[in-house]
Amino acid sequence: xxxxxxxxxxxxxxxxxxxxxxxxxxxxxxxxxxxxxxxxxxxxxxxxxxxxxxxxxxxxxxxxxxxxxxxxxxxxxxxxxxxxxxxxxxxxxxxxxxxxxxxxxxxxxxxxxxxxxxxxxxxxxxxxxxxxxxxxxxxxxxxxxxxxxxxxxxxxxxxxxxxxxxxxxxxxxxxxxxxxxxxxxxxxxxxxxxxxxxxxxxxxxxxxxxxxxxxxxxxxxxxxxxxxxxxxxxxxxxxxxxxxxxxxxxxxxxxxxxxxxxxxxxxxxxxxxxxxxxxxxxxxxxxxxxxxxxxxxxxxxxxxxxxxxxxxxxxxxxxxxxxxxxxxxxxxxxxxxxxxxxxxxxxxxxxxx
Length: 353
Ligand code: OGA
Ligand code: NI
What we know:
By secondary structure, the chain is of the alpha+beta class. The protein is 24% helix and 21% strand. The model has no long low-confidence stretch (mean pLDDT 93).
């Protein structure tokens, strides 16, 4: 990432970030105590379900506190991530993603065909993870993806695995509350995650001399069910406002130890558009590097994603044709790592006109 900017990083003028940050009220901050303490009173649980339901509807994004995840574990992972990325490129490339499995290190992701100003380390929550070999509908062959084993920093894999367990617990609780907020059984979503394709990503956004031209991650929607993001105190995540005002993007100011939650495309389809997946992006800055750790909750590869029957009826017919999650995932994997001239696969391709 030298002094002359590589054109691959340059965003089209309409997608470049505004450098003066406008601050709206910000996304809702929600206290998860009712699901993380023993014996909560029933009325606080009802209130939480309503709060999360309206955050999903109005924003698609919210932050949570009192989430039950160990702060020291999160700090350990953040430290380990810093040490990992501080290594030489040559050392990091020893655990590069490869043809047989996309988990590991890489610095060449393209979002909407523009290169992101970042480097990442991906780690699957299930090792091995079963996925289709190709995105072709008629190809039934499956393959196993596995994780890489970095030797540095010491204990890296164990810290990641311990943190994943915490993410799984939090994700389960959030999915239960979200189910209830849609009027479903708390455990309605559980079946989709018995096997799963979820993964955790360590992001490093180095300082960028061209914050007005490039983005850490270009505008995008998360394709899965739910994302749980830990950001550090630098800031840079911006969320697109659903309701038009005089501003388009709002900065998610770091709240110490909070998690940022957003619903992904699959939740949009399951809820038949009640809970829309919202566009977001990451601005970089010229002085500070930034670290973040998203956990992407993805269902099993053979999940047929479609609007839930309980949430559709004559007056609200299904708005999407079913699609196979594993095929969608492979499509995305094939397109995210090289610049292409066409849009990659999106849920609107399955929209019923
Ligand atoms: C992502 C993402 C936000 C961040 O990786 O999908 O939106 O703050 N990351 O790093
Ligand atoms: Ni995202």
